[in-house]
Amino acid sequence: MVARMRGRTELPLFPLGNVLFCGGRLPLQIFEPRYIDLIGACTKSKTGFGVVLIRQGNEVRADEDDKSPSVFDIGTYASIVDFNPLPNGRLGIISEGGPKFRICSTWEKDDRLLMGEVEFLPEEHAAGIGDQYQPLVLILKRLVEDPIIQRLGLEIDFTDARSVSWRLAELLPVDPETKQSLLQMQLPRERLAEIKRLVAKLQGSSR
What's the CATH number of domain 8-120, 3.40.50.300, 2.40.10.10, 3.40.50.2300, 2.30.130.40? Predict the structure, then answer.
């Protein structure tokens, strides 16, 4: 995880159809010039960018008249942990989630890169799992046995409600806006309670 951050700062934003959680890893394929420049600048300065979920609009802006997508106010700071050119000519990167932030204001640079003044949110407090959520730990352990998930190299503390709730929130097959609502929760056990409800709903619909 990246170092804790405080206060307000300017941050380049990457609007996506995905939600990134603290400690999570998100593979991306970069091909738009503004984002290739962004990744180059981040790599040189050893800084990151903000991942934010699109509320309305598209990730790719094919025409000059396309408007910037509207995004949710809460996002996640992302650090680049690996990158390599792909056979399709795109740049592949893996970003790792750090602290959450709230967007105070946004604007576009000349290259149409979305920028934001953001305020980093307080770090979530550590909490134990509790007996009522031990079945969720077993579900997570089964999920991370998948070879695709293993290749991400996730670090998981199965005794920490933060770690377990973050990983379940990103790995469960729920829609992005549901993941966003889980991201916005500040209490790990509150997130686990909602995940428990979602798991019961998923299990009920599969019968």
Answer: 2.30.130.40
Instruction: Assess contact for 59 and 16: CB atoms under 8 A.
Output: yes
Q: Which residues of 163-194 are buried (b: 16+ CB within 10 A; e: fewer)?
A: bbbbbbbbbbebebeebbbbbebeebbebbbb
CA 113 to chain centre: 19
Give the residue among 124, 99, 98 at the shortest CA–CA distance from 189.
Answer: 124
- β-strand partners of 92: 29, 84
Q: Residue 146 and residue 45: Cα distance in Å, rounded?
A: 34
Distance (Å, rounded) from C-alpha 61 to C-alpha 63?
6
- For residue 132 the two structure tokens come to 């009522």
Give dist(CA 15, CA 5) in Å, integer: 21
- Alpha-carbon distance of 90 to 30, in angstroms, equals 6
Task: Note if the pTM is more than 0.85.
Answer: yes
8-16/49-56 β-pairing: parallel
pLDDT tens-digit map of 60-97? 655 666 677 899 999 999 999 988 888 888 888 899 99
Question: pLDDT for 29-66, tens place per residue?
Answer: 888 888 888 888 998 999 999 999 999 877 665 566 66
